Amino acid sequence: MVSRSPLKLALVAAVVGSSLLVTGCAGRGGKVKDTAYVARDVETLYLTAKDKLDTNQPKVAAALFDEVERQHPYSPWARRAQIMGAFSYYVARDYAKAIDSAQRFLSIHPGNREAPYAYYLIALSYYEQISDVTRDQAVTDQARTALRELIRRYPDTPYATDAKLKLDLVQDHLAGKEMEIGRFYERSGDWLAASIRFKNVVDNYSTTSHAPEALFRMTETNLALGIPDEAKKYAAVLGANYPGSKWYQKAYNLMEKYAPNAKAS
To answer: What is the CATH number of the domain that holds 43?
Structure first.
C-alpha cells in the first residue's frame, strides 16, 4: 500500500476545516455501534456524526452522515453529509464505500464547489489500494485514470497539483510491473516477449526511473534475437540520455563484446 503524503493530509484537513466547517483530522478507530433509525433533527444528527469523526470513530461517523441524508434528503445538510460521509469512509479505509459515496455526490451535485474534492477523494481511494508490483495492477490503472480525470477537470486546484505528483508515482509503479514481467520472460529465454515488455516501458514510461534499465534490456534482448543494429540503437539512446548510469556501462560492454561493428539502424 502506498503511504499517505503530508501534502494530501494537509489538503484533506484544509477541506474539512474550511469548506465543510469540520475541524481536525480523524484517526482510524471506532466501530459502528447502534446507528439504527432514530428520528432526530438534522442539525443534531449532523453534529453527532461530526463529533464521532472528531473523536476517531470514522465508521460510526460515516453511518451517521448516511443517516443525515436518509432522514433529511432535501436539506442543505444532506449535501454536506454526503461528502463528509465519503471522507469518513476514506478515513476508515473503506475505500469502496468512499468511492461510491463520492460518485453519488457527483451524480447529484456535479456543479457543487466541493466537486473537485469529491474527484480527489475518489482518486485517493484508488491510490491507497495500490499494491506491490508482484500483484495484479488493475487498481493502479484505476488510480491513474482517476488522477488524470481530476487533473483534466480541475487543473488549477491544489488537488490537481498533488494528483500530478501521485500520477508520476503511479506511472513508475506500472513501469515497474512491466519490467518485472519482462525480466521473467528474459529469464525464461523468451526474448521476443521480453523485448515487447521492455519496449513498452521505453515508449510509454520514458520519464520513469525504469527507463535506463529498459533501454539496457532492449540492447540485451535484441542481441539475443540476433539484431545487433537494433541493439546498437538502444545502446546509443541510453548513452545519450544516461551516460553516467551503470546501465549504459553494461550496454557498452555488451556491444563491445558481442557486436563491436554494429551500426545503429
So the answer is: 1.25.40.10
21 and 83 belong to one structural domain: yes
Q: Is 171 exposed, middle or buried (0-12, 13-18, 19+ CB in 10 A)?
A: buried
Could you tell me the sign of the dihedral formed by the alpha carbons of 112, 116, 118, 119, in that order? positive
Q: Tell me phi and psi for residue 110, to 5 degrees.
A: -60, -30
Tell me how far apart the 2 most distant CA atoms of the chain are, in Å. Answer: 84
Whole-structure pTM value: 0.75
Residue 189 in grid coordinates: 529465454
User: What digits encode the pLDDT tens for the residues 91-144?
Assistant: 999 999 999 999 999 999 998 999 999 999 999 999 999 977 677 788 999 999
Phi, psi of 131 (to 5 degrees): -100, 180
| Cα(256)–Cα(219) distance, integer angstroms | 12
Q: Give the CA-trace dihedral at 91, 96, 142, 133, to 10 degrees.
A: 70
CA distance 151 to 61: 30
Cell of 58: 470514522
* pLDDT tens, residue by residue, 29-44: 444 444 544 556 888 8
Which amino acid, residue 49?
A
Residues 27 and 106 in one domain: yes
SS3 132: coil
**How much is the pLDDT for 4?**
52
For the chain, list the strands marked E by DSSP.
none
How far is residue 100's CA from residue 97's CA, in Å, rounded to a whole number? Answer: 5
